[in-house]
Write a structure and sequence with these properties.
The complex is a heterodimer. By secondary structure, chain A is an alpha/beta fold. Chain A has helices spanning 55-62, 84-89, 107-114, 123-133, 135-139, 150-162, 180-197, 208-214, 232-237, 239-246; strands at 15-26, 29-40, 44-49, 69-74, 77-78, 92-95, 168-172, 200-205, 217-222, 225-231. In chain A, the strands form 2 sheets. A 6-stranded mixed β-sheet of chain A has the order 6-7-8-3-9-10, with helices on both faces. In chain A, helix 3 packs parallel to helix 6 (150-162). In chain A, 45% of the residues are buried. Chain B has helices at 2-32, 39-56, 61-84, 92-114, 140-162, 164-174, 176-181, 186-208, 218-233, 238-258, 267-281; strands spanning 129-133, 136-139. By secondary structure, chain B is mostly helical. Chain B has a domain at 20-216. The longest helix of chain B is centred in the first third of the chain and has 31 residues, at 2-32. In chain B, helix 1 runs antiparallel to helix 10, helix 2 packs across helix 9 (218-233) and helix 9 packs across helix 10 (238-258). Classes of the chains: A alpha/beta, B mainly alpha. The complex binds adenosine-5'-triphosphate and magnesium ion (MG). Residues 55-56, 97, 172-173 of chain A line the site of magnesium ion.
Amino acid sequence: MSTDPSSHHGSGRQVLLDVKALRASYGVVEVLRGIDFSVDQGEIAVILGANGAGKTTSLRAVCGMITTSGSVQLAGEEIIDRKTHEIVRRGVAHVPQGRGTFPDLSVADNMLAGAFIRDDDEIADDIARWYETFPVLGERREQPAGNLSGGEQQMLAVARALMSRPDLLLLDEPSLGLAPIVTEQLFETFAELNANEGVTMLIVEQNASLALGIAQHGYVLEAGEIVLSGTGEELSGDDSVRAAYLGY
Amino acid sequence: MELFIARLFDGLNNGATYAAVAVALVLIYKATTLINFAQGELALFGAFLTYGMAVGWGWPVVLSVIVAMILSAILAAGIERTLIRPFPPDAHLPIVIITLGLFLAMNALSGIIWGFDPLNLPSMFPAGDAFTFGIARLRWRTIGNLATVTGMLVFLNVVLKRSKIGLAFRAVSTNIESSRLVGIRVGPTLQFGWALAAAIGTLGANLIIPDLLLDPTVMLRVLIFSFAAATLGGLDSLGGALIAGLIVGLVRSLVVGYVGFIPNELSLATAVVLIMVVLLFKPDGLFGTARVERV
Ligand SMILES: Nc1ncnc2c1ncn2[C@@H]1O[C@H](COP(=O)(O)OP(=O)(O)OP(=O)(O)O)[C@@H](O)[C@H]1O
Ligand SMILES: [Mg+2]
């Protein structure tokens, strides 16, 4: 276990997302104080942290939704000064915290919007496929997304993000507001997607046990600084992580 | 009875034209949740362009209207790019002030270029009546106006529901941040909305002004009824704007027709009263989406 983020990455693996010395502030308050983290191609990484630690801010920084300084490299290319829509076109999909859908648009149109950057003819097939994974979305395809329950909207937000066929999926507290059983199914789906399709994921969570269960690597963010990093197992076994995030 | 039918035709004719401008207002409202106060003056400018081509150069009227619609769209796209886009989409106050400034500037510019004398703007449709019933005449122009507005709405619906840019426009109208996150470029999408609204507004002006006279003040008298129609329709509903436009047209011609002591000029007041009543008692209008809290 160490706080050096590169030490636990084995050699020969490709780094998909490499964040270095990332700083972000809202006004005069510095929220990210120069953090480093990286996500390998094909892995699931997780950032744990309490309320206000800066988890959402980290993901927003990766997507160019706030101004930041430091370095964010995607597959070796610097993207820190890129606009959000360009970053999305480079293969990053982001499921924001809370409502990430288009409430006035139908479920089906939300799915189509998710495929906005695509031009191929497999969009309809993909929609059908995610309706199979999330049957409730298929049943309510004609209804405005705003009519769905919070959990259903969360599924829609995930499905919508997957419609872009991302290389890197950023998930901001996907378990928020979901029933435990739904959360478990969702995390199973994440694990399957990762295993079968090779979608790389960076998950920000407070639900540490589920997240660490499927993650290869994790980071602990406290007050804008990475205080711990390690493999999923290492973090699950760490006393301070147990006390703070696992509650046993 | 004949008088009633005459007023009915009159009301439908005016209503259709109010609806066209109301649809332009609704489009911008959907994109920005703001009223574009310059919408009428953009349409006025488009009507003067039509006049220049149709009367000045002797072009066919329909062709002149189409070219004027395209030119207004280009002008509006330029305005969006230079005056609106520098502000973040949620900077409501600056954008409203800019549209007010545009209103004044476009109005003055029209006067400087084309003068203040009333002009006769030709209609796209033949003169004469399709059908008469005593003093009630159903003019070809009324039929043409109704058909044009209906056709325009059908076209708009197809563009918004079936095209990719239409999907982007609807996405941006409901959630700007999520739109960016699916890769939509918000600026150009809003620009498309401005261009489309300007073309539709110019079409509307070319439907109604042939019944009036073309001068720099004419759209003021039209716009108030279109505001009323847009408000009554719920501000964010295109179909609602059409139906409410027809209602406003009918109410106006029936009120002015039957309540003898209301002089024509005061009919503007009926529109203002209608706007106030709707805003007070049914702020979402007849067909508007109940405002969900925007996060
Ligand atoms: N738009 C903003 N303006 C000002 N301060 C902000 C803004 N957004 C976040 N903050 C502050 O930045 C800090 C980090 O916020 P952030 O949303 O990244 O936390 P988080 O780890 O995602 O928390 P949570 O678990 O509650 O979602 C907090 O102290 C928060 O108050
Ligand atoms: Mg957060």
